[in-house]
Model the fold of this input.
Amino acid sequence: MRTLLKRIVRACCISLLVYGAIVGGLIAFGTAKPPAVAPAITQPFADIDTEALPELARYRARDGARLSYREYRAAGNGASGSRACRNRVIVLLHGSAGSSVDMHPLALALQRAGITALVPDLRGHGANRPHGDITYVGQLDDDLRDFIADRAPRFPGSGWTILGFSSGAAFALRFAAESPAGPGVDRYVLLAPYLRYNAPSVRQPEPGSGATQSWAAASVGRIIGLTLLNRWGIRYWNGLPVLAFPVPADLDATTNAYSWRMYRNFAADDDYLADIRRAARPIQVFVGAADPLFDARKLAAEFQSQRPGVPVSILPDLGHSDMVTRPEAIRAVVAAFN
Done:
């Protein structure tokens, strides 16, 4: 009996060592090379006219961090706009690797239409350092709740909309499904939502063709290794980078890489279709017909298969970044609030 027990213990120890070696190898060596810069996506943001950009303000999150945001307050909080615009506050969430500056053209247009726009730099982005990391999965959700709670007293009686772009739209969808923000948030607007890397709507790169470029280079082996460790409750290495973005390395406002915990939080859930079903508030979607990252018709089908009748506007001749930088897209989005 004692010999059998020793054999079992030895087999378990060997299995753990092999498992640890495999996981360690995945984490140490399962990395990807940084991707080449993607000017078709990044250049529209570089061309933004920032002359009227508001100064950064700060709010205090629950952990004491003072996180940055920009405020585009409409005169009388919308008194000069249409009746539908009055007392409307919209929180704009930028995309992956971006910052509040990326949302400036849309925020300015909303302000001119009589709508107040609030644009946070999400933690790990923009003026919030360090870039590309958070402390735990779910911290972005807590930050967004804290931001709304901090600003809501300044806009009594206002209705709140959360509008996200790209990965910010996917995060907004996750937030709509899982993170009640109070009765004031009554609507979600998603611009070119990046649902998941293997969603049917995501165009897959064609090797050697150069026709399609993935937005991020994923360290797949490291992601698998860290995911396995997290299933065992081991989170020590969750700050290691796992995604690299095709952005210029010399731009201070951009974020070049994401940690595992940022990658898990700044996105929809793995079952993003369930997020679409569970969202308790109305959703409206906009996407460009010429988006190099998505198939717009497949994206519409994904939403409408889970929520029949959800409005999905496919804007002709517009690409991914165009959704928050081109006047045609901005006019369409602003018009949705009239």
Summary: The chain has a mean pLDDT of 89. The longest helix spans residues 2-29. Residues 159 and 184 are 5 Å apart (CA to CA).
